[in-house]
Specification:
The chain is α+β, with helices and mostly antiparallel strands. Helices cover about 55% and strands about 15% of the residues. The strands form 2 sheets. It has a 3-stranded antiparallel beta sheet, with no helix packed on it. Strands 1-2 form a two-stranded antiparallel ribbon.
Length: about 220
């Protein structure tokens, strides 16, 4: 059964969805990052107080995805990834059930045929009764190998779910807004009377700029 291509295709879709999610960080980071909200009561005094909101913790996303797939994505507010996570786990789990079922059928049929247990010939699956002993042995080994691979694919999909929640949980803390800018402009130094290049790295429009002048 050629099911590896289906799994590879699904994983490619998962990685592609992650690249799309990276483009959404600009809108999400501003909403999840720590904020300071001023509280002002004009009737009593002009004194301001602040209430700090909780910072997005990537460790919580990692733990939640390890316990329950998709929980970390929900914590990261990437709800659209949850169906993809469960699709990957469901497909790999379905392949395991399918291959395990047919492994036991072919194993039973092979044992009955080799041991010439005529009393149990009726227990052989109708699709396997016309196969030779060598073909039964081949299918038995093939289904057993595919079943073992299905377990590995399932664990890989689960681990990928944890990695995705961890990585994008950390990306929530990065400032990817328009305030991060790098500007290069010409400049004239009146002391040395020589032209130079001015590099300005702006972390926030409300803060000072870090200036680096290259002669």
């Amino acid at each position: 059964m050629n099911y590896r291509n289906v799994i590879i295709w699904l994983l490619c879709c998962f990685f592609y969805s992650n690249s799309i999610s990276a483009q959404q960080q600009r809108a999400d980071s501003a909403a999840i990052k720590e904020k300071i909200v001023p509280l002002f009561d004009s009737s009593k005094s002009k004194q301001k107080d602040t209430v700090a909101r909780k910072v997005h913790d990537p460790r919580k996303a990692t733990f939640r995805s390890a316990v329950l797939p998709g929980w970390g994505q929900a914590y990261n507010r990437e709800y659209w990834k949850i169906p993809i996570v469960y699709a990957a786990l469901g497909i790999t789990g379905g392949f395991f059930v399918y291959n395990n079922n047919w492994y036991h059928k072919t194993k039973k049929a092979y044992d009955i045929r080799v041991n010439k247990d005529t009393a149990r010939f009726g227990e052989i699956d109708p699709q396997l009764k016309t196969l030779e002993d060598t073909r039964l042995a081949y299918y038995r080994n093939q289904f057993r190998k595919d079943r073992d691979y299905s377990v590995l694919y399932f664990l890989f999909a689960w681990g990928l779910n944890v990695v995705d929640a961890t990585v994008f949980g950390h990306l929530k803390e990065f400032d990817v807004s328009d305030n991060l800018t790098l500007r290069i402009s010409p400049k004239f130094n009146p002391q040395t009377k020589l032209p130079a290049l001015s590099l300005a790295l702006n972390f926030n429009s409300s803060h000072k700029q870090n200036m680096l002048t290259v002669k």
